[in-house]
Design brief:
By secondary structure, this protein is an all-alpha fold. The protein folds into 2 domains: 113 residues, no CATH class; 101 residues. Helices cover 67% and strands 0% of the residues. It has 14 helices and no strands. The longest helix has 17 residues. The mean pLDDT is 96.
Length: 235
């Protein structure tokens, strides 16, 4: 029965795949995982069906599905985010799946589905902070994108910016996430975020300059501010 469920889901993914989508994803996503090539809506549909119990116990399904297929990791992340469990239990499930994430798309999909963080800010803020010291790059990216997505409000922005400014920027995907966070912060609370650029408070020059570039492409930042930001580039 267990094997049948796993095979059924994999078969559903293959049946919904197209060569064009597979080629597109392989070009866009740097991963060692097998890419089947389906739209995200297909994975979301399987997540929804699993949370309704269509594939048996959804928590058991998380451990059943393989880690070496890009789309099954999407499904795992979606199930974890949608399960009606407490924060501690969800944290355990997240801890178990994060080491298997090796690409930005799985990581950012997971964060986008993690809206439960809004319901208990103190718990999830501490959790995200704890992940920053991980040696696994995509665990750090998960933390940074979570801080950007859920912790740039007035209660957390000061600490969030302070944490992000000191994150190591040696990994490309971590550095890009921190840049993204600062660009978003510039759009949400310009005065607080720009201080880090004016004072050289961001540890990584790559992050500093990429944040300015991203902010310069934002529709939420005025042309006057974009012009000023460009004067703050490091050389």
């Amino acid at each position: 029965m267990i094997t049948d469920v796993k095979a059924e889901i994999l078969r559903s993914l293959v049946n919904a795949s197209t060569p064009e989508k597979r080629a597109f994803d392989k070009k866009l996503i740097d991963t060692e995982k097998r890419i089947v090539g389906v739209k995200t809506a297909v994975a979301d549909g399987i997540v929804g069906a699993s949370l309704k119990g269509n594939y048996g116990d959804p928590e058991k399904l998380i451990s059943l599905l393989p880690d070496d297929v890009y789309e099954t990791v999407l499904i795992k992340c979606g199930i974890i985010s949608g399960l009606p469990v407490g924060d501690e239990k969800r944290k355990e499930l997240i801890d178990a799946v994060l080491p298997s994430i090796d690409n930005w798309a799985n990581c950012d999909f997971f964060v986008a589905r993690s809206k439960y963080m809004r319901k208990n800010h103190p718990f999830w803020f501490e959790y995200a902070k704890g992940l920053i010291s991980s040696q696994h790059d995509f665990t750090v990216r998960f933390a940074i994108v979570s801080l950007m997505s859920y912790f740039l409000g007035d209660d957390y922005i000061d600490e969030t910016l302070g944490i992000a400014a000191n994150v190591r920027g040696d990994d490309y995907y971590v550095g890009m996430a921190v840049s993204w966070l600062f660009a978003t912060a510039l759009a949400k609370n310009y005065d607080k975020a720009v201080r880090y650029l004016e004072t050289g408070g961001i540890k990584s020059a790559f992050v500093h300059n990429t944040a300015i570039k991203k902010a310069s492409e934002s529709l939420r930042i005025s042309p006057e501010r974009k012009t000023y930001l460009k004067t703050l580039k490091r050389v």
